[in-house]
Design brief:
SH3 type barrels, 72 residues
Length: 72
C-alpha cells in the first residue's frame, strides 16, 4: 500500500520510494527505505502528518502516493 492509504495511528515501515525526485524530497525530510514512521494524522483532502522520533512532518498527497509502506 502507499502512504496516502495509511490509517491514522498506524505504525509503518517505508518499503520503497518511487522516482529520484520523490526520493530526494523524502530524504530531505529524513525519510528513506527502512524507516519506521507513525501516521499521526490524515487530513481530509489534505496532507498526511507522520511522526518519526520527535519530529512531525506534513507530507502532501502527491508525495505520499509515491511512498510504499508496510505495517510495522
Amino acid at each position: 500500500m502507499t502512504l496516502d492509504q495509511a490509517k491514522r495511528g498506524q505504525r509503518l515501515y517505508i518499503a520503497s520510494i518511487t522516482g529520484d525526485t520523490v526520493r530526494a524530497q523524502a530524504i530531505r525530510f529524513g525519510i528513506f527505505e527502512g524507516s519506521e514512521i507513525h501516521c499521526a494524522e490524515k487530513l481530509p483532502a489534505g496532507p498526511i502528518v507522520i511522526s518519526k522520533g520527535k519530529q512531525e512532518i506534513a507530507i502532501g498527497r502527491r508525495l505520499a502516493e509515491n511512498i510504499e509502506v508496510q505495517p510495522a
